[in-house]
Specification:
Elements: E1 10-16, H1 20-31, E2 35-41, H2 45-53, E3 59-61, H3 64-68, E4 73-76, H4 83-90, E5 99-102, H5 108-114, E6 123-125, E7 127-129, E8 150-153, H6 161-173, E9 177-180, H7 183-209, H8 213-221, H9 227-233, H10 238-247, H11 249-271, H12 275-294
Parallel strand pairs: 1-2, 1-4, 2-3, 4-5, 5-6, 8-9
Antiparallel strand pairs: 7-8
The structure holds NADP nicotinamide-adenine-dinucleotide phosphate (NAP).
Length: 324
């Protein structure tokens, strides 16, 4: 423990998955002295070794059940598709009165996939920090990632309020602001603020990738004209984003339908030379941008890439900045 608190919030925090989010959480927990011990779990030996070398965890395990055993907080930090198997494997080793949480970018699917494996004596509180970058792996993490970002918790009805408060204190301890909401509401909001923007970025960049060679080279050369930010978002992890779209299907399809209607309206305005329609719409969106800035959610801050801090990218999640 580096924070030096004599009474940390947790005795043993287990992070299953020690990539961008897991390793950032591990670093932040250690920096702020929020746990006596941080234990990590990953499938590959090189991931586990990197987490040890970087000081993200005190010990590492390949077996999630071994990692989870004896922990008073277990946080799933892998892509969503890994959850059902991990939940099944750790189910029998979860400590009485411990908290089981996660950082996944979709919440109803987590309740569906993990909920059935949670023993009655464990507090299950799904969570999602609205913070991230397009990078992956333990090296990509940093302790400041969650500062001034939202951490959303979606405890199922009837969850013990003391456990929710304890987990909230952890997120506040790493610098985040906590909001409690219903999982369905979370998924609808995130479909709009994060999932749709990523889908658009992936689409624009793949449209460019399909251009003829000459044109494609020009796109890369002059990418600063707006395209560059889309390429950054579209560089986000393919497995993580595949899982997000497959697990938030209904909410994403709903916002996509609305988006299609709106883009068709703009297409029509361009075709018919309806300048006032375009101008009116763009004024309206400018106001929304002002609201984002006033809410201090305008830029991601990766201390190793300060030039990125004020990038006016479309709303980001790798989920946001561009984070998930
Ligand atoms: P990441 O950098 O790719 O890290 C994933 C980690 O999980 C790696 O350490 C990986 O190591 C490990 N892992 C994968 N499958 C595993 C399994 N079955 N058992 C144990 N370990 C496993 O991913 P990330 O960006 O941190 O994202 C993790 C979660 O956070 C996702 O659910 C995502 O939705 C959510 N999230 C992401 C962001 C973002 O911007 N990135 C933001 C908010 C929330 P091995 O390959 O060695 O196993």
């Amino acid at each position: 423990m580096t924070g030096g608190h004599s009474n940390p919030l947790f005795e043993r925090v287990c992070l299953i998955g020690i990539g961008l989010i897991g390793s950032s959480l591990g670093r932040a927990i250690k920096r702020h002295g929020l746990a006596r011990k941080v234990v990590g779990c990953a499938r590959r030996a090189e991931t586990r070794q990197a987490a040890l070398d970087l000081g993200v965890c005190d010990t590492v395990h390949a077996d999630p059940a071994e990692a989870a055993a004896g922990s008073d907080l277990v946080v799933l930090c892998t892509p969503l598709s890994g959850y059902p198997e991990i939940a099944e494997r750790i189910s029998g080793s979860l400590r009485r009165e411990s908290i089981l949480s996660d950082v996944g970018s979709v919440k109803q699917a987590v309740i569906r996939d993990v909920g059935p494996f949670v023993p009655d004596h464990v507090h299950f509180i799904p969570g999602h920090p609205i913070a991230g970058t397009e990078k992956s792996g333990p090296e990509a993490g940093f302790a400041e990632l969650f500062e001034d970002r939202w951490a959303i918790l979606t405890p199922p009805p009837g969850t013990d309020s003391h456990a929710v408060e304890r987990l909230s204190a952890l997120w506040r301890g790493v610098g985040a602001m906590v909001e409690i909401m219903d999982a369905r509401h979370h998924d609808r909001v995130l479909a709009m603020t994060s999932h749709l923007p990523h889908l658009i970025a992936y689409t624009i960049v793949s449209t460019a990738a399909d251009l003829e060679t000459g044109e494609r080279q020009e796109v890369v050369k002059f990418s600063a004209g707006g395209f560059r930010d889309f390429t950054r978002i579209a560089a986000s992890d393919p497995v993580m984003w595949r899982d997000i779209f497959l697990n938030n299907r209904d909410a994403v399809l709903e916002v996509l339908q609305r988006f299609n209607e709106d883009i068709t309206a703009l297409q029509r305005a361009i075709r018919w030379g309806e300048g006032e329609v375009l101008e009116d719409r763009f004024r309206h969106t400018r106001e929304l941008r002002r609201g984002v800035i006033e809410a201090h959610q305008a830029g991601s801050f990766d201390p190793r890439e300060p030039e990125k801090a004020q990038t006016a990218a479309p709303v980001q999640d790798k989920t946001d900045p561009p984070e998930s």
